[in-house]
Known about the structure:
Elements: E1 4-10, H1 18-31, E2 34-39, H2 43-48, E3 51-54, H3 81-93, E4 96-103, H4 105-116, E5 121-125, H5 141-162, E6 165-170, H6 177-186, E7 190-192, H7 204-217, E8 222-227, H8 237-249, E9 253-257, H9 269-287, E10 293-298, E11 301-306, H10 307-312, H11 319-328
Parallel strand pairs: 1-2, 1-4, 4-5, 5-10, 6-8, 6-9, 7-8
Antiparallel strand pairs: 2-3, 10-11
Helix pairs in contact: 1-9, 5-6, 6-11, 7-8
Bound molecules: adenosine-5'-triphosphate.
Amino acid sequence: xxxxxxxxxxxxxxxxxxxxxxxxxxxxxxxxxxxxxxxxxxxxxxxxxxxxxxxxxxxxxxxxxxxxxxxxxxxxxxxxxxxxxxxxxxxxxxxxxxxxxxxxxxxxxxxxxxxxxxxxxxxxxxxxxxxxxxxxxxxxxxxxxxxxxxxxxxxxxxxxxxxxxxxxxxxxxxxxxxxxxxxxxxxxxxxxxxxxxxxxxxxxxxxxxxxxxxxxxxxxxxxxxxxxxxxxxxxxxxxxxxxxxxxxxxxxxxxxxxxxxxxxxxxxxxxxxxxxxxxxxxxxxxxxxxxxxxxxxxxxxxxxxxxxxxxxxxxxxxxxxxxxxxxxxxx
Length: 331
Ligand code: ATP
């Protein structure tokens, strides 16, 4: 009996837990009598016919590895009719009856175009940014948050020793979730997120005022978490903020841009569980030949919904959490 073939690819920025999703899809798929094919380097592998069979032996040691062993790439050909047609040709050539795409909103757009061309496709949210509104959590967010919190606390140790203000810049271009959650979990003294960029609180003079208040009344060090999406076009943003804050307060300020350390590392238990549960749902959907869906988690439950509906959901900002961050900081 020939086994049904399902493809899987990872796309967009890598995130911890992408491998766990592939691992689970292969194991669960094998149990359901499916053969899982891995597409290398995201949609680029569909352009290049770069496809490998993923046996359970082959994926044995990837569950807890960071990054994505399948590779990921940006693939501009997917934005063209010809590129999309080539993707479908590769899918047909390898006999894939469905495709799992692990990635962010751009990757979901690609998945939608394939579903429209008759390939049942299911998206799993693989991005550290937590910027997909339809799901409470994306795969990789929890790991990145833990990495960020670890760094913020280490930076605070040295700021405390030298009586300094530390500005820690974290990832999050449109979505301040990493910054906000890290600020709360670490008790940061100020958090700057893109969602509040035009609000009054954002004014740097407010940051300076809070730092001065802390130095006058409590301690002679402070921690500020800054999301990269704040003044995104500004070059050396954290450095500029440092100079301005030093000028405004007269205190010694240091900036640290965490950069790619936030993307790497073994996925947390939470991210592994999330990836495994979501891959399970994707396999169930494709076993029934249901596509054009994305999988999410809301209120503790795994669910799936239409790709377009998910992409069209307006972004919400956790204002109560932001207010809590400020109250924790003594506002
Ligand atoms: P991240 O959140 O990490 O940036 P992402 O999935 O949003 O992840 P993108 O670079 O936006 O990352 O998209 C990944 C790939 O998805 C693109 O390189 C392209 O191949 C494909 N893609 C993006 N937008 C579309 C689209 N409108 N139609 C078809 N394919 C698309």
